[in-house]
Write a structure and sequence with these properties.
globular, Imm49
Length: about 625
């Protein structure tokens, strides 16, 4: 038994709280329980129960103080609480060891062990090997650790401890598939100020510079635009605002690389501004790292054409760039080229990349091993269709990402606040149907992390973007004029909103192209008895299905119950019949809206009918078609 001279239970409890193994709430509850057990509780207990440890120590209102624990003592306590079967707890424990083991006595067996652990984790950046070593060797040290831990815990038997991942030890351990973002030592107000600087001051200068000096400004803007994504995610801005920065970065990165290769002239829409570019081959910021950022952005937004373009670059572009191009960089590029063309040789190319990574210098080597290689390992698992390997590797990749970007020299770099390379891999795993991993499961990624915003992972490569007017919620009445949208329905300049809709395609077989469901063939069109003389402009929404929410539990009903369902015109009687569902996609409050106009929508409204009953609607449509032909309407 270890002796603690002059260390009363309250000092031990404060010490455990001080190193994060007891929460403030648990400590106050423990003080309350001890007060009830005593006739005359000591003043420190009363003060602690009333105000909590942090406030008591700040005010210096208690005599008891936490005492410093030795590394071996704290190691024993953390080992006592560690669940080696929990990946998150294990990674957290290894990280704590690596940060705190310096300067300890090498003759102690615990210190010898943790130095070997630190060597694998920090110096070699080999987290899987560190985990394997911990799980095999720590059980041999646990008996001695339990002796040390018991000497503390027997003094405070009713104190509820916290596991190394922040969960009460009496409850379940944290889920294996969660990795939090490393702490960011900036307030939300400070992050907002940085984002405002980009949005208000830099972005207008960028847009002007793209026209005057695209060679310098396109590449020079990428870092700030990448930072804007990190700021927006950290502030938890609405998804549409975050997506705007992602789209902006994606467009500028592609424009920069297209411009720098001296390809043919092109036009790009950058944040609503149509800009013409006359490319000039140059070497500024044309390295593999810039290329990688661009291809990651393409994968995240589902731009397969952009990826096809990027994987046709001549390797001389990178060799001639103003940044260094190592053998590993070229191996990384070749891996992506092979992967995007079906992934026939990804295993061999991964082995080559791993071998070349060992030749990188110390600083670059840490980045390559922590960021680049985990990304390639994920892509290799996707290429093989190995969902299990993908799940295992994404957790290790996130841990390596966190380890790298939480270093003091990197912690405030917003590019590490979001795991762009891993987001790209996750988007591919869930969206690219030519890979079997996406075919077998709709949820190929089963990990939650602040580094991986879920709405960006769940992006579908086959989504269509629908532009709507915010006032009337219509899309068919919008026209682009002088870089602004004019709404013919509202007769005003529109404030637009964007909807991303899955499982739709453009049906170009009609007189006017229309949106149609990719699955619409599974639901037959509603049969109608149509008299001679009627011309069907389009009918891609009136299906033989009732507007019942339970029929659409797993998908969006928008592709059927939309504003533009059926439109017919009778030239002889100068009548227009139009059918839609209003509000669009709302099966709870919405209804069919049927109208008849003289001429077109600018003419006189002759008839209007609303119902939620499909069969009643069919009867009414057939009645109107017949009566119009009889000149009754």
């Amino acid at each position: 038994m270890i002796d603690f001279p002059n260390r009363d239970p309250l000092s031990i409890a404060l010490s455990l709280w001080n190193i994060g193994l007891v929460s403030e709430t648990a400590l106050m509850a423990w003080a309350d329980a001890r007060i009830l057990d005593r006739v005359q509780p000591c003043p420190d207990l009363l003060e602690l129960a009333a105000s909590g440890a942090q406030l008591c120590l700040q005010r210096d209102s208690i005599e008891s103080r936490p005492f410093p624990l030795t590394f071996v003592e704290e190691f024993a306590l953390r080992s006592h609480l560690l669940d080696l079967s929990d990946a998150r707890s294990t990674i957290h424990f290894i990280d704590w060891v690596s940060r705190n083991c310096g300067g300890e006595d090498l003759e102690h067996p615990v210190v010898l062990f943790v130095y070997e652990l630190d060597h694998l984790y920090y110096e070699l950046d080999d987290l899987p090997a560190a985990i394997e070593l911990l799980r095999s060797e720590l059980p041999l040290l646990l008996p001695s650790c339990e002796i040390v831990a018991s000497a503390f815990l027997e003094q405070v038997p009713d104190l509820v401890l916290i596991s190394p991942t922040g969960d009460a030890n009496e409850g379940q351990s944290a889920p294996i598939n969660e990795i939090d973002r490393h702490p960011i030592d900036l307030t939300p107000a400070a992050i907002r100020q940085l984002l405002n600087h980009i949005e208000i001051e830099l972005l207008p200068l960028m847009l002007a510079g793209f026209e005057r000096n695209p060679q310098a400004m396109l590449g020079g803007s990428l870092r700030e635009l990448h930072n804007a994504i990190g700021y927006a995610v950290a502030l938890e801005l609405p998804h549409v605002e975050i997506q705007r920065y992602v789209n902006l970065f994606h467009t500028v990165a592609l424009c920069h690389l297209r411009f720098g290769t001296g390809d043919a002239p092109f036009t790009a829409n950058i944040d609503g501004n149509m800009l013409d570019f006359m490319p000039e081959a140059h070497s500024e910021r044309m390295g593999v790292d810039t290329w990688a950022d661009a291809i990651h952005a393409c994968a995240i937004v589902g731009d397969r054409d952009g990826i096809r373009l990027l994987t046709t670059f001549d390797e001389d572009v990178f060799a001639d760039s103003d940044g260094a191009c190592s053998p590993f960089d070229l191996a990384y590029y070749r891996f992506w080229v092979d992967f995007s063309n079906g992934g026939q040789n990804t295993a061999k190319l991964l082995d080559l990349a791993i071998a070349l990574a060992a030749q990188e210098d110390n600083l670059r080597g840490k980045f390559v091993n922590s960021i680049r290689l985990p990304e390639l390992r994920l892509l290799e698992a996707i290429g093989r269709g190995d969902t299990r390997a993908f799940h295992e590797r994404i957790l290790n990749a996130l841990a390596a990402h966190k380890q790298f970007w939480s270093q003091p020299s990197h912690v405030l770099q917003p590019s590490g606040w979001v795991a762009f390379p891993l987001l790209a891999a996750c988007a591919i795993a869930t969206c690219w149907q030519d890979f079997s991993i996406a075919k077998r499961t709709t949820k190929a990624i089963d990990v939650k992390s602040d580094y991986l915003p879920q709405f960006m992972i769940n992006h579908r490569a086959d989504l269509l973007t629908i532009v709507r007017c915010q006032t009337c919620n219509r899309s068919s009445d919008l026209t682009l004029q002088a870089e602004r949208f004019w709404c013919a329905w509202c007769q005003n300049w529109a404030t637009i909103q964007l909807d991303r809709v899955k499982d739709l395609e453009i049906d170009r077989m009609l007189t006017l192209p229309q949106l149609a469901s990719q699955h619409s063939t599974q639901i037959p069109l509603q049969p109608l008895r149509i008299p001679t003389g009627w011309h069907v402009a389009y009918n891609n929404g009136l299906f033989e299905i009732d507007p019942l929410p339970e029929l659409f539990a797993d998908e969006n009903p928008w592709w059927i119950f939309k504003e533009d369902m059926l439109q017919m015109y009778n030239e002889r009687f100068n009548r227009l019949l139009d059918l839609g569902w209003y509000p669009e996609g709302d099966l709870v409050a919405g209804s069919y809206g049927l109208v008849v106009y003289e001429g077109d929508f600018r003419g006189r409204l002759l008839y209007e009918f609303r119902t939620r009953d499909r069969l009643e609607l069919v009867a009414e449509i057939e009645r109107l078609l017949s009566e119009i032909c009889q000149e009754k309407l």
